[in-house]
Amino acid sequence: MTNSIFALLGDIIHTPKAGEVEIHYGSYLVCRAGRVAGIYPRLPEWFENEEVIDCTGKLIIPGMVDMHLHAAQYGARGFGMDLEQNEWLHNFAYPEEYCFEFPEYAEKMYTSFADELLHSTTTRACIYGSVHTDATVTLMKKLEQRGLRAYVGKVNMDRNAPEYYSETLDGSVEETLRWLELSNEFKKVKPILTPKCIFNVSDALMEQLGKIRDSHYLPVQSCLSETKGELEQRGELCPDCNTGAEAYSRFGMLGGAGGCVMAHCVHSDENELEALSRAGAYIAHCPASNLNLSAGIAPAARCLRDNMHIGLGTDLAAGESLNLCTAITAAVKVSKMHALTVDTETKPLSLVEALYMATKGGGEFFGQVGSFEPGYDFDALVIDDSPIAGNGRCTLLQRLERFIYLSDGKVEAKFIKGDKVL
Ligand SMILES: [Zn+2]
Predict the structure, then answer these.
(1) How far apart are the CA of 68 and the centre of ligand 1, in A?
(2) Distance 286 CA to ligand 1 centre (A)
(3) Domains of the chain, earliest start first
(4) With 70 as the cut, is the pLDDT of residue 297 above it?
(5) What is the pairing mode between strands 282-285 and 20-32?
(6) How far is C-alpha 335 from the chain's CA centre?
(7) Rounded to two decimals, what is the model's pTM?
(8) Per-residue pLDDT tens for 48-67?
(9) Ligand 1 center to residue 226 CA distance, Å?
(10) What is the mean pLDDT of the chain?
(11) How far is the CA of 4 from the centre of ligand 1 (A)?
(12) How many whole angstroms from 362 Cα to the centroid of ligand 1?
């Protein structure tokens, strides 16, 4: 359907600016060549006899963007949620990721993962695989087959990991190059360099990855200033860096033309936030995960209002669900606690701001994505909220709020760049 013209007729909501919502009752969202042509109360003359998909009474919102999740932890979701980070990693995350060494396991788990993602509100995502090249290619294939658009990374990790699930410096470099070669076959799913975090990647490996990034013009994803423990160990791991961001920037791994996503940034100080801002890096705010692993609360409201790039991540499986609605509600909740206990000057995030982060905030990492402004990629969700729509006195925004808070996050139809994928 990519090059055709068609329209969705329904109740349309989007957030073209942070904190501002645009609402169109019973209107037409028109797609032309995979992009949004506009929102119209009546069909424009040039539309003529093109197809109208009647979604009257249903909500139509932009597809959501998950800026940080671990597909290889899909089988570990809902386990050890009362543990702290290190214990959880060693008891659940690493043993689970190790299993992706076995092709049959990767095939089975990544099929289930991609199927659940297809039915969710997520249209685009930045995804970690495991250290395994072949399993990561399997993951890319499953996503591509379902029409989902994503950046996927083979994880690099050569220190402070259990012996059964670690790489050597040379092995990690060789496998990264082999994985990049194999990734060429995909069109909708693209590779992203994925040094797990500075705790798990030596300077020597980071230097090699910086060179690979330059020669292949790649984006980067990693984790930054997630826990207090990480800050305490930084002195030992990166003795000549004042901030975690510096440990990436000196190897050309922060910002840059290829783009960069840093997950968490819970404990980033002023210098680090400024470095991220200057580099144009994206923050993936992962409030559900930060709660579960006692990481802390990131200053998301402030970052958003300071015009930094910030989106939302589920951080599956430290966040228990790949349903991005849970990240939106968690973002609002933790922001209230932050305003109450840490930064009393900053008002907590509104639902509309959190919705912006889940759509356009993260979407901009993918280009013109996450909004229904003309020219944006036609990424749209059709939601049947009739079972929870209330007694008919709700506004459209209240209906969307109920969907976000009360539903299982499953959508009725999904379009990505004009293609109907569900
Ligand atoms: Zn993570």
Answers:
(1) 6
(2) 8
(3) 5-63+371-420 (2.30.40.10), 64-366 (3.20.20.140)
(4) yes
(5) unpaired
(6) 19
(7) 0.97
(8) 899 999 999 999 999 999 99
(9) 9
(10) 95
(11) 38
(12) 16
